[in-house]
C-alpha cells in the first residue's frame, strides 16, 4: 500500500509538472498576442487575405469557364450520348478542379504589388467599415429595445391592433415604446399588423391541437426579428462612404491583379462580401482576426519563425484549456479519497463532468455568459419543483413521482387567474393561493392511497401521476371556463394547450432586480424566491414536526414506538410535497413565459427526481443542500451537455437524447444504490 502511495504521488507530481509547462506555454502565447511584431504579422496576413479573397473570384471564374469548355468539347464527340451523365459530370469536374489549381498557383503570389498603397487603402476601408458597423450595431440595439418593449407590453395583438388606422395604431405603439426612432414608424405599424395576423393564424391552429409536451428550451430574452429594421439617414450616409472607400480599394486591387477587371457582377459581389467579412474583424480581437485571415490561407505570407510564433499565439487559448482540463483531472486523481469522502463518487464525477463541459463550451466558442445565465434561470425554474421531492423523501414515501398532481393544481390556479384577466403580482399570488388550496385536498387524498400501499410508494406514485395527468386531459376540456383568451376559439370551450403569460406575470420574478455579472444575467428575484422556500423547508425540517416526520421516514417502527402517528406524518409530507409542486409549476411557468396543460406536466417528476438525486440524496434521505446543489449541477450538465452535443455532432439532433440519457441514467443509478435500505 505504501509503494502505491509513492507511485500515486510520483504520477501526481509528473502531471502537475505537465500542467505547469502547458500553462507557461499558454502565457507566452498570450503575451505574444500583444507584441508589436505580432501586430505587424497580422497586418501582413490581412493584406494577403484581401489578395487571396480577390483572387478567389478569379479562381472560380477560371474553374467555371473550364467546366463549360469541357462540356462543349464533350458534346462534339460522336459518342457523347453513350458516355452517360455520370461520366460527363466526372470529366467536367476534373477539368474544373485542374483549372482551379492552376489559377490558385497563378494568383497565389502576386508579383509587383504596391504593398504600401494596398495596405493604406485596406486600412482606410477597414476604418470606414468599423465606423459603419458600430453605428449599425447601435441603431439595431435601439431597434431591439423598442421591439422587445412592444412585444413584452402587448399580450393580445388582436385587441391591440383592432380596426385602428395607421395613425391611431402608431399612437398606441408610441404609448408602449416612448423612444421609437422616427424612421421606424411605418415599419412598426407593419410589425403590429403582421403580429395580429400571426396571432389569428396561431389561434386557428391551436383549436386543432390536442396535446403538447413540455418544452425544454427557453430563452431569457425576447427573440428580435430584424425584418422591420430601417436604417437612419446618418447610417445610410455611412454606408455610402463604405462604397466610396471600397471603390478606391478595388482600384488598387485591379492594378495589382488586372484580370479582376473582367469579373462578372455576381462574382464581384461575392468577392466584396468576402473582403468586408475579413476586414470587419478589426475590433473583435486577435482570435477573430487570425481566424478570418487563416480562412484565406494567409500564413503563407509569413516567414518560418513568424509563422511559428503566430501559431503559438493562435493556439494559446486551446493550450490553456488543455492545461486546466489536465489540472482538474490531476486534482481529482491526487485527492480522490478526500473528494469522494466529502461528496461521494457520483457527485465528484458529475461535478468534474460539468467543469469539463464548461471548458468544452469555451473550446467550441459558445457564448458561455448566455449559457450560464440559462443555467441560473433554469435553476430558479426547477428549484421549487425539485424541493417538492424533499418532504416526500423525508416522510418515507420516497421519490414522489406523483408530484404531477400538484403541478396540475398549480396550472388550475394559473387558468383561474387568466379567466379573470388578472395581471402582475396579483395574478401570481391568486394563482399560488388557488393552486395551494386545490393541492391540499388532492394531496391528502393521494396520501391515503400511499398509506394503503406502503413499500410500493414509488411505483404507485408513478402510475397515479401519469393517470391523473391523463385524466385531466378530459378535465381541461370540460371545465366551465369561458374567457376567449384561454378556450379554443372555434369551439368556445375547452382549454387551449399553451397559454402565453407575457403581459400577465411572465418573467416577473426573473426580471425583478436582475443584473449582469461578467455578462451573465442573474435572475435575482427568481433565485431569492427559491432560496426563501428552501430556507422555510430548512427551518421546518428542524422543527418538532419536521424532526418527527424525518423520524418516520428513517425508521417508521421506531417512530411508531415513540408515539408518533406514522400515517399522519406521511400524509403531512405528501401534502407538503403536493403544495410545493403546485407553487413550483407556477414559478416555472412564470420564468418560462407559458403555461402548458394536458400532457405537459407528465415528465416533471422525473426531472425533479434526477436533480435531487444528483445532489446526493437517496430514496430514503434528503436535505435542502441536496436540492440546491443537485438542481444547479443537473441543469448545468443538461444545458451545457445539450448545446455541446449539438456542436460536436452537427445536425445530429442529440439534444433530446442527452436529456433522456442524463435524467433517466441518474435515476437508474440512484435506484440501484438504494438496494433494500427501505426495509
Written account of the structure:
By secondary structure, this protein is mainly alpha-helical. It has 3 domains: 2-110 and 302-331, no CATH class; 118-228, no CATH class; 366-674, ABC transporter involved in vitamin B12 uptake, BtuC (Orthogonal Bundle). It is built from 27 helices and 4 strands. The protein has helices at residues 2-33, 36-75, 80-83, 85-107, 115-153, 157-161, 166-176, 185-206, 233-256, 265-279, 285-294, 304-314, 316-334, 336-343, 345-363, 368-387, 389-395, 404-419, 424-452, 457-478, 524-541, 544-554, 556-561, 566-592, 604-614, 624-648, 655-674, and strands at 498-500, 515-517, 520-522, 594-596. The strands form 2 sheets. The chain has a two-stranded antiparallel sheet with strand order 1-4. α2 packs antiparallel against α4. Mean pLDDT is 83; it is low at 207-221 and 674-679.
Amino acid at each position: 500500500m505504501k509503494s502505491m502511495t509513492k507511485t500515486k504521488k510520483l504520477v501526481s507530481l509528473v502531471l502537475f509538472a505537465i500542467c505547469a509547462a502547458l500553462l507557461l506555454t499558454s502565457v507566452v502565447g498570450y503575451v505574444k498576442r500583444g507584441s508589436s511584431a505580432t501586430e505587424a504579422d497580422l497586418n501582413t496576413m490581412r493584406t494577403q487575405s484581401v489578395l487571396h479573397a480577390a483572387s478567389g473570384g478569379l479562381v472560380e471564374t477560371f474553374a467555371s469557364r473550364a467546366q463549360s469548355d469541357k462540356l462543349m468539347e464533350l458534346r462534339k464527340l460522336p459518342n457523347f450520348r453513350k458516355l452517360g451523365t455520370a461520366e460527363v459530370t466526372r470529366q467536367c469536374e476534373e477539368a474544373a478542379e485542374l483549372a482551379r489549381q492552376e489559377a490558385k498557383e497563378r494568383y497565389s503570389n502576386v508579383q509587383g504589388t504596391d504593398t504600401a498603397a494596398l495596405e493604406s487603402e485596406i486600412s482606410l476601408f477597414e476604418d470606414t467599415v468599423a465606423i459603419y458597423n458600430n453605428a449599425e450595431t447601435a441603431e439595431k440595439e435601439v431597434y431591439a429595445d423598442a421591439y422587445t418593449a412592444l412585444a413584452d407590453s402587448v399580450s393580445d395583438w388582436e385587441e391591440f391592433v383592432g380596426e385602428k388606422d395607421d395613425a391611431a395604431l402608431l399612437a398606441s405603439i408610441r404609448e408602449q415604446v416612448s423612444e421609437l426612432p422616427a424612421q421606424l414608424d411605418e415599419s412598426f405599424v407593419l410589425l403590429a399588423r403582421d403580429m395580429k395576423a400571426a396571432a389569428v393564424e396561431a389561434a386557428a391552429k391551436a383549436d386543432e391541437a390536442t396535446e403538447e409536451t413540455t418544452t425544454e428550451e427557453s430563452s431569457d430574452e425576447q427573440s428580435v426579428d430584424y425584418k422591420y429594421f430601417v436604417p437612419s439617414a446618418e447610417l445610410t450616409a455611412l454606408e455610402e462612404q463604405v462604397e466610396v472607400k471600397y471603390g478606391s480599394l478595388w482600384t488598387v486591387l485591379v492594378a495589382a491583379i488586372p484580370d479582376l477587371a473582367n469579373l462578372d457582377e455576381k462574382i464581384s459581389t461575392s468577392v466584396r462580401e468576402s473582403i468586408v467579412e475579413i476586414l470587419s474583424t478589426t475590433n473583435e480581437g486577435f482570435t477573430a482576426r487570425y481566424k478570418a485571415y487563416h480562412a484565406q490561407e494567409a500564413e503563407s505570407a509569413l516567414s518560418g519563425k513568424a509563422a511559428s510564433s503566430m501559431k503559438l499565439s493562435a493556439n494559446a487559448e486551446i493550450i490553456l484549456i488543455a492545461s486546466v482540463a489536465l489540472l482538474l483531472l490531476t486534482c481529482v486523481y491526487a485527492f480522490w479519497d478526500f473528494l469522494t469522502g466529502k461528496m461521494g463518487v457520483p457527485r465528484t464525477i458529475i461535478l468534474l463532468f460539468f467543469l469539463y463541459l464548461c471548458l468544452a463550451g469555451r473550446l467550441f466558442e459558445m457564448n458561455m455568459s448566455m449559457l450560464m445565465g440559462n443555467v441560473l434561470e433554469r435553476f430558479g425554474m426547477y428549484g421549487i419543483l425539485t424541493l417538492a421531492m424533499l418532504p416526500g423523501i423525508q416522510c418515507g414515501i420516497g421519490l414522489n413521482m406523483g408530484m404531477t398532481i400538484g403541478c396540475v393544481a398549480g396550472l388550475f390556479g394559473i387558468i383561474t387567474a387568466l379567466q379573470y384577466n388578472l395581471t402582475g403580482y396579483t395574478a401570481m399570488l391568486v394563482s399560488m393561493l388557488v393552486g395551494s388550496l386545490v393541492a391540499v385536498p388532492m394531496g391528502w387524498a393521494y396520501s391515503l392511497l400511499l398509506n394503503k400501499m406502503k413499500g410500493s410508494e414509488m411505483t404507485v406514485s408513478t402510475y397515479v401521476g401519469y393517470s391523473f395527468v391523463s385524466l385531466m386531459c378530459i378535465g381541461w376540456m370540460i371545465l366551465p371556463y369561458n374567457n376567449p383568451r384561454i378556450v379554443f376559439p372555434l369551439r368556445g370551450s375547452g382549454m387551449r394547450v399553451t397559454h402565453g403569460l407575457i403581459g400577465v406575470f411572465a418573467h416577473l420574478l426573473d426580471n425583478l432586480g436582475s443584473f449582469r455579472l461578467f455578462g451573465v444575467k442573474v435572475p435575482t428575484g427568481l433565485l431569492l424566491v427559491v432560496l426563501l422556500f428552501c430556507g422555510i423547508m430548512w427551518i421546518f425540517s428542524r422543527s418538532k414536526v419536521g424532526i418527527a416526520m424525518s423520524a418516520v421516514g428513517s425508521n417508521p417502527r421506531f417512530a411508531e414506538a415513540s408515539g408518533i402517528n406514522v400515517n399522519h406524518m406521511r400524509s403531512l409530507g405528501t401534502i407538503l410535497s403536493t403544495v410545493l409542486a403546485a407553487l413550483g409549476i407556477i414559478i416555472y411557468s412564470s420564468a418560462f413565459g407559458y403555461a402548458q396543460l394536458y400532457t405537459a406536466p407528465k415528465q416533471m417528476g422525473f426531472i425533479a427526481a434526477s436533480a435531487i438525486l444528483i445532489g446526493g440524496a437517496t430514496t430514503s434521505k434528503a436535505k435542502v443542500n441536496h436540492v440546491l446543489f443537485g438542481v444547479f449541477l443537473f441543469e448545468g450538465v443538461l444545458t451545457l451537455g445539450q448545446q455541446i452535443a449539438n456542436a460536436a455532432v452537427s445536425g445530429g439532433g442529440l439534444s433530446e437524447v442527452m436529456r433522456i440519457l442524463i435524467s433517466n441514467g441518474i435515476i437508474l443509478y440512484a435506484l440501484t444504490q438504494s438496494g433494500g435500505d427501505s426495509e
